[in-house]
Amino acid sequence: MRILFVASEIFPLAKTGGLADVCASLPRELAAMGHDVRLVLPAYPGARAGLEAAGPQIPVQELPGVGCIPGRLPGTGLPVVLVEAARWFDRPGGPYGDTRGRDWPDNAERFHGFARASCAIAGDRAGLGWRPDLVHCHDWQTGLVPALLSLEGSRPATVFTVHNQSFLGRFDRAQFAALGLPAAWWSPEALEFYGDFSFLKAGLVFADQLTTVSPTYARELQTPEFGCGLDGLLRHRAADFTGILNGIDTEVWNPATDTYLRQCYDSATVAAGKRANKAAVQAELGLPAVGRIPLLVMISRLVEQKGVDLVAELIERWSDRALQWALLGSGELQWERRLEALAAAWPERVAVRIGYDEGLAHRLEAGGDLFLMPSRFEPCGLNQMYSQRYGTVPVVRSTGGLADSVVDVFAAGSGAAGTGLVFDAPEAEALATALERGLPLYRNRAAWHALQRNAMAADFGWRRSAEAYLEVYRRALAAAGGGHG
Q1: CA–CA distance, 37 with 425 (Å, rounded to integer)
Q2: Do the strands 170-171 and 196-198 form a parallel or antiparallel pair, or are they unpaired?
Q3: Which ranges in 37-149 belong to alpha helices (H)?
Q4: Average pLDDT per run of 10 along the chain, which is 485 residues long?
Q5: Max Cα separation, the chain?
Q6: Residue 206: domain span
Q7: Are 129 and 243 in the same domain?
């Protein structure tokens, strides 16, 4: 199968979150299974600088000022095409906003242009000599691609994946008019969305098949609580909507070979390996090197969605307990300041690092005893999978991909299959109760090591997910052949 991935970020050329990891790892797995996979990404300055084997720019005749730069995704050999348009993508800051985090005011124009260029590539009108059977689009930035392709007489099949439905790509009617989109699309059956229009809705309406990043999140998105105003549309398209749990890169995240660690280990040597890495990360963070005190770690965006407020409340409530806390992340200023204040108040118990440090993230996974993910919603989540692979017991709220990837050790019938601690309510009290259940296990070394080995035995590689996507692709091809759209 010839498959074109269209995404606004792909690791390592551009990354703000898990979307970039998925759009690197899934294509690599599909290519390993024998499929012809190519990627398309905007030509941000960092992407241009990182592209391997870059060829000369090829003008896209139907889009003045837009060109394609072919090359390779670093470390993979996968073909990548960067959509070059200096007026849209050659600017400082991130993919979606300036250096202060404010959205670019012309994002509708930027990603409409990216969509049109992607359609030219898909229709072999960009001078690349290749045409896909299927185009796989990701999140709102690519939502117009299935819509625009639906206007073409001969088109590839389309699949649209929602990674986080809370980002709608919502713009006003003036911007709709400025893009020159078909007037008929300004309707509740197409792109119109409560007086505005939504790029995300475009993908959900026009793609042949829809997916999201976990089975539980797929069910949640069909409810008013999580659907962000699109739950009715997703219920209408339920037969075309599949939740597929993301995988992780098991080469990058492998405690047996991880070069960031003080000491590598596997499930047979987890006890000694964790001790060495815990001592190392305690020293790095300035925490007392006490081995038998549980080290609770969190790596996260510091926003309420991730439950950072629950963790902060619990740190305060349990300030007199023999526990250590280590938190890495950045986000809203109020949470950054609150966590820094906690670290200043109890420096022997709490360590906080604002920002992101890939090496420290690996060392926290290896040195931590418990990993906290008390998210209010979590489409998939990756850190709970990394944690299990590193024998760090995840403590998660039962939502989205967390519910699909962590088995509560105390759940009736889970028996030896337990891999973590799971709670239901998005409240500090519920998080506390989960930890109160788990901490006695930590003091029972035999039980704790058994739980760690269970977690490390879980399979979160991409092969199973890739096979599920191929089944969705086959359904999309059948639908496109039947004239969908």
Answers
A1: 42
A2: antiparallel
A3: 45-50, 86-89, 107-122, 144-149
A4: 98 91 95 98 98 97 97 96 98 93 95 98 96 98 98 96 97 98 98 98 98 98 97 98 95 96 98 97 96 94 96 97 96 96 98 94 98 97 97 98 96 73 97 97 94 96 97 97 50
A5: 69
A6: 2-247+463-481
A7: yes
Residues 6+ apart with CB under 8 A from 114: 8, 42, 83, 85, 88, 141, 142
Do 9 and 153 fall into the same domain? yes
Q: Cα separations (Å) of 389 from 322, 383, 422, 465? A: 26, 10, 17, 17
Please tell me the total count of domains within the chain.
Answer: 2
Rounded CA-CA distance 99/76 in Å is 30
Does 432 reside within a domain? yes
Q: What is the pLDDT of residues 331-372, one digit of tens each?
A: 999 999 999 999 999 999 999 999 989 999 999 999 999 999
Q: Is residue 429 domain-shared with residue 450, that is, in the same domain?
A: yes
The residues with which 211 forms a beta bridge, in sequence order, are: 161, 242
Q: Are strands 79-84 and 134-138 parallel, antiparallel or unpaired?
A: unpaired
Rounded to the nearest 10 degrees, the angle between the axes of helix 18-32 and helix 463-481 is: 80
- Tokens 């073409």 correspond to 152
